[in-house]
Amino acid sequence: MATRQRAGGEPGLGETLVSEQELQQRVAELGAEITRDYADRRLLVVGVLKGSAVFMADLMRAIGPEVDVHVDFVAVSSYAGTASTGTIRVLLDLRENPEGRDVLLVEDIVDTGLTLSSLTETLRARKPRSLEVATLLDKPDCRKIPFVPKYAGFKIPNEFVVGFGLDYEERYRQLPYVGVLRTP
Ligand code: IMP
Ligand code: MG
After folding, report:
1. Among this protein's residues, is 40 annotated catalytic?
2. CB 3.0–4.6 Å: which of 81, 128, 138, 163 could bond 103 by disulfide?
3. pTM of the entire predicted model
4. Nearest ligand, CA of residue 159?
5. What pLDDT tens digit does each residue of the chain (184 aa) get?
6. What is the biggest distance separating any 2 CA atoms in the chain, rounded to whole angstroms?
7. Which ligand minimizes its atom distance to the CA of 163?
C-alpha cells in the first residue's frame, strides 16, 4: 500500500504511553470497582461511539454477573483533527429509555470536558436514577470546563494519543495499546 504523504509530513505513531498489560490490569480493576458499586442492581452501560468501543468491550466483560448489565450506545461528534471545536452533534441516540435507570456512560478520553458536560446535561434532562462516567483516559490539564469522571483508567499529560479505540482521523483505533501521535 502506498503511504499517503502531505506537505510537511503526516503525523505518525510515536512511543507507547500505556501498554497492553497495563490496560488489561486497570480495566479489570475498574470492572471490580463498578461491580462493587452496582452489585444486585440493574445498570445501563452506554458506550459513546466510536472511541469507547474497545474499552467498552473489555470493561463489560470485567463487570461481574451480580450486576444486571444492559448495554446501549450513543454517538456524538465533537472533534476535527486534533483541535476541539466545542461543537457537539448527536449522531446516534439511545434506544433504551434512561428514565429511572442507573446509567454509566463509557468514554475513551476526557480532554476539554466539553463533550461529556454537554452529553451528561442532555441525559440528566431525561431523569435517570443516577448517571456516572467511566473513561479510559483523562487529560485533566486540558479542561475548558470542569468535569470529574467517577471512574478513570489513566490520567495522562497533554498529548494527543491513539490506539485502544482512539483515533487520529479514523486511524490507529485497532492498536492494542495507547501510543502518542508524533507530529513531524
Ligand atoms: P472533549 O470534549 O475535549 O473532552 O473531547 C472528547 C473527545 O475528543 C473524545 O471522545 C475523543 O474522541 C477526542 N479526543 C480528545 N483527546 C484525544 C486524543 O488525545 N486522542 C484521540 N481523541 C481525542
Ligand atoms: Mg475521536
Report:
1. no
2. 128
3. 0.92
4. 1
5. 444 444 568 899 999 999 999 999 999 999 999 999 999 999 999 999 999 999 999 999 999 999 999 999 999 986 554 555 556 788 999 999 999 999 999 999 999 999 999 999 999 999 999 999 999 999 999 999 999 999 999 999 999 999 999 999 999 999 999 999 998 8
6. 56
7. 1
Q: Which strands form 102-110's sheet, in the order they lie side by side?
A: 83-92, 68-80, 42-49, 102-110, 130-138, 151-155
Residue 163 in contact with ligand 1 by CB distance below 6 A? no
Q: Of residues 102, 108, 111, 138, which has the active-site annotation? A: 111
How many domains is the chain built from?
A: 1
Asked if residue 169 lies in contact with residue 12, where contact means CB atoms within 8 angstroms, the answer is no
Range of the domain at 91: 19-178
For position 74, which CATH number holds? 3.40.50.2020
Residue 3 maps to a domain: no
Q: Whose CA is nearest to atom 13 of ligand 1?
A: 79
